[in-house]
Amino acid sequence: MFPLALDPIVFRIGSLPVHWYGLILGLGALVGLFLVIREGSRFGIPQEFFMDMLLLGVPSAIIGARIYYVAFKWNDYKDNFVDVFKIWNGGIAIYGALIGAIICGIIYFRYKGYPFWRIIDICAPGLLAGQMIGRWGNFVNQEAYGGVVEESFLRSKLHLPDFIVNQMYIGDAFHHPTFLYESLWSLLGIAILMILRRQKFVRAGEIFLSYFIWYSIGRFFIEALRTDSLGYNGSSGLASFINGLWSPMKWLGFEPGFLDPNYGNIRISQLLSLLIIVAAVVLIIIRRTTGQPKAHYSDPIVSTKTGNTDAVVPDSAEHTPQQAPKGSQAGLKPPAEEDKKEQ
């Protein structure tokens, strides 16, 4: 007897079904919010600021994610336009979600008077936490999985529990649990970002850019295992280059998943991952070289709309906020202290 899949519907309220997918995405958003509020409190930023950010950011992320996905799958939706709105069936793209959330953040932070790079740095681990948990929604929906594997690979090599192995039996074969690979990669990334942001050399914006670099590295290698990648027709040279970069995975015993030739020969998420990695590294170098990010991650964060009344100097050792020194302007450290730092 073949294993049974999990029911994607948790329960019904009358005729309205409540899906695991939506509940899991909601849980991911709440966990991410908790991490952001906890870190934001070290800088004296009120939790209401982040709660409002979530209320605006989540819809923006969902809209961006859906538009991104539908745009590359338009042939599947142009004759069934109503299906565009059925996000509970899956079909949202994380990169699209990030685009939507960033656009919302730029507008919202500016409206509140907070510097974009400083706030987005605080949000980076929370974003990864949301992605880490959200991938389990793909698990329940049996989507975003990889190519065919032997059952023994899942049980004996990966030592996965029965509930994951059984859910990875899709169609007539077992598949790579790519949702799990990405979830674990995100978990490791959260730990790295939390350690990195306590280092004194880190400048404003570098935690967020590090988040992009870390996530994109993992996404590049995991994406090629999947069988549902968005693709396009690119040059054979570019396709060979990408496949060559991915080839170390073959040495580890992995094989790329099926890519529908009707959609192209290059996986869009792989190409975008490479571009993001290069862009983020170059941006860090340019900003460091020009001295543009004058503020460090540990410096006070102040809203231009509220002045320096809420500004605090976070104590990285004690993890407790301290009031900004008197005489500082806009929550910045006194000139003497800044001079010491520059020396």
Automatic annotation (TrEMBL):
GO molecular function terms noted in the UniProt entry: phosphatidylglycerol-prolipoprotein diacylglyceryl transferase activity
Pfam families cross-referenced by the UniProt entry: LGT
EC number, as in UniProt: 2.5.1.145
GO cellular component, one term: plasma membrane
Membrane topology classification: Multi-pass membrane protein
Transmembrane segments: 20-37, 49-72, 92-109, 208-225, 268-286
InterPro entries registered for this protein in UniProt: Lgt
Similarity section: Belongs to the Lgt family.
UniProt-recorded name of the protein: Phosphatidylglycerol--prolipoprotein diacylglyceryl transferase
Gene (UniProt): lgt
